[in-house]
Structure formats: C-alpha cells, structure tokens
Amino acid sequence: MQENRKLTKPTFDNLSEEKRHLIIRTATSEFARNGFENTNINTIAEKAGISVGSLYKYFESKQDLFLFTIAHGTDVLKDVLSSIVPAALTLEEKLNALVEAIQTTSREQKELIRLYSELTSVGNSELVERLSYEIEAVSATMYTALMREEQKKGTIRGDIEAPMAAFLMDNLFISLQFSYASEYYRQRFGIYLGATIEERDRFVREQVVAFIMNALRREEEP
Questions:
Q1: Predicted pLDDT of residue 125
Q2: Stronger pLDDT, 126 or 176, i.e. the higher one
Q3: Any bridge partners for residue 217, and if so which?
Q4: Which of 50, 65, 116, 175 is such that its CA lies 20 to 30 A from the CA of 58?
C-alpha cells in the first residue's frame, strides 16, 4: 500500500496490525455515517480507543485520515479486480465473477461502499479531484483494457469506444453495489424486483451478465 504510506506518519506503521485495522474501520464507519465535513476527529479517536493527540501522531490531518480510508478501500478493489480481469476466462465468465464479487464485497464492506456514496457531498474540490482519481483509476484502467482486448479478439462489437463501454459497465456495477449496501438503493432494488431479490443472487448475476453481453456482443453476419 505505497500510496497509503504517504498519508500516514512513520509512527502509524509501528502500531500492531490489529490497532491499525481498528483505526481504519472506525474512521471508515464515521466518515460513511456523517460525511467528511461533519465527522468529528475526536469521536474517531474515542471509538478507536486512543487519544486525539495519538491520532495526530499517526495522521497529519482529518483530510489525510479520510484519504487513507479511501486508499485502503481502493486497495481492496484492486485486489478483487486483479484476481478476475487478467484471468484466463471468457468475457462472460469474468463478468459473472465480477458481479459475484460485487455481491460479496458490498455486503461485507457496506460502510466502505456507503463512504463512496458520501463523496458527492465533499465540498473541497481539490479533495474531490484526488479522491475520484484514487477510486476510479483502478477500475477505469482495468475495464478499458478488458474491452480493448475483447475487441481485438472480435468477441464484442467494435463500434463502441472501449473507454465508453467500460464507463457504462462500471456505472451498472456501481448501481448494483449501492443496491446491496445503501438502504435507499436496497428499497429501490426491492420495488423493482420484489422483496426477496437479495436472496436471488444467481438470478441477479445471470440477468446482469446477459444484459452486458447483449449490449456488447457483435451482430451475427447475415
């Protein structure tokens, strides 16, 4: 996590892994619940079982702590994508694995997903620019490369620019993430597909993959 280290002071690395994870989890929870502006650094310190002075020995500012939680989440995303996108699978198999990973991580990392949804409320434009790059660069690079590779193979249509195809696919994935992690989107999910939709993971995967494949698949020659 090279990028993360730039956001912390050397003393943070001297903490036990358990203590570091507790600080990350606590900060993620508070930022997700209250947003960047309304989160109180004192509350994070108290819930993490450390003093405010100690927290400032690990991070220069609240902004650095916030950026660190984002960078940590980005590392999680990178690990998931790196295990699927380059794999020796068909595009359909990769999409199925990606949707399954979204279902799993959205449930296990609900507060992290909620934290992402708070980013639109961050008023600091410099901070927003840095955050958007931290989060989106990973998926944008991998998904665009995937689309270009499949176009070269001739498995998907070539009349859609690869970055646009990647962008649209990721929009669908983001919406699906929120449908499992955000209460509002979960309600919306149920309104469209019924109250038991969260118990029908295989159905969701099959439908999402079919939708994307049908949008990307080349038309058969007459």
A1: 64
A2: 176
A3: 156
A4: 116
Q: Considering its fold, how many domains does the chain have in total?
A: 1
Give the C-alpha distances (Å, rounded to integers) separating 113 from 98, 108, 183: 16, 10, 12
Evaluate whether 65 touches 59 at the Cβ level (below 8 Å).
yes
pLDDT of residue 87: 82
pLDDT tens digits, 15-55: 999 999 999 999 998 988 888 888 999 999 999 999 999 99
**3-state SS, residue 49:** coil
8 Å CB contact between 152 and 146: no
- Greatest CA separation found in the chain? 72
Comparing CA positions, the residue from 182, 178, 173 lying closest to residue 208 is: 173
Structural domain boundaries enclosing 152 = 2-216
Look up tokens 């931290």; give the residue. Answer: 134
* Domain assignment of residue 145, yes or no: yes
Q: Give the domain CATH number at 149.
A: 1.10.357.10
What angle (nearest 5°) sits at the alpha carbon of residue 26, between those of residues 23 and 140?
A: 90
Proportion of the chain in helix, strand, coil states, percent, rounded to 5: 80, 0, 20
Q: Is 222 among the domain residues?
A: no
Is 221 part of a structural domain of the chain? no
